[in-house]
Design goal:
InterPro entries: DUF2516. The protein is mainly α. The protein has one domain (3-101). Helix content is 78%, strand content 4%. It is built from four helices and two strands. It has helices spanning 3-35, 38-43, 49-68, 75-102; strands at 106-107, 110-111. It has a two-stranded antiparallel ribbon with strand order 1-2. Strand 1 (106-107) and strand 2 (110-111) form a beta hairpin.
């Protein structure tokens, strides 16, 4: 086997794995966005649920198409999709989750 072919296989495998990880992040962001109430987004001052739902859905579609087509690199749209999902998971999710949990009865060790 030629060295160039081996390097090409390894490179394609790495791109495919990166595409799978990116798609998993995008799906996680989409499913988490679906779980929260619309009022929690507005109470946390983080745009609307419709905005974040559309953004994470588009990101998941881009990630899914990248994985299904062989993951030929992330590309500009793939990087934008991963960035949108990561912004949701790192910034919006904790704020919305905190607002959603404040309405429940909380004890010293969690909800009761």
């Amino acid at each position: 086997m030629d060295g160039k072919v081996l390097i090409s296989y390894i490179q394609n495998g790495i791109y495919f794995l990166l595409g799978l990880v990116a798609f998993a992040l995008e799906l996680w962001a989409l499913v988490d966005c679906l779980r929260h109430k619309p009022s929690s987004f507005e109470a946390a001052s983080k745009r609307t649920k419709t905005f974040w739902l559309a953004l994470t859905c588009i990101a998941a579609v881009i990630g899914g198409s990248s994985v299904l087509t062989g993951g030929g690199g992330l590309g500009l749209f793939g990087i934008a999709a991963v960035t949108a999902a990561c912004v949701y998971l790192a910034d919006v999710r904790p704020a919305v989750k905190e607002i959603g949990n404040s309405g429940r009865n909380q004890g010293p060790y969690g909800p009761w």
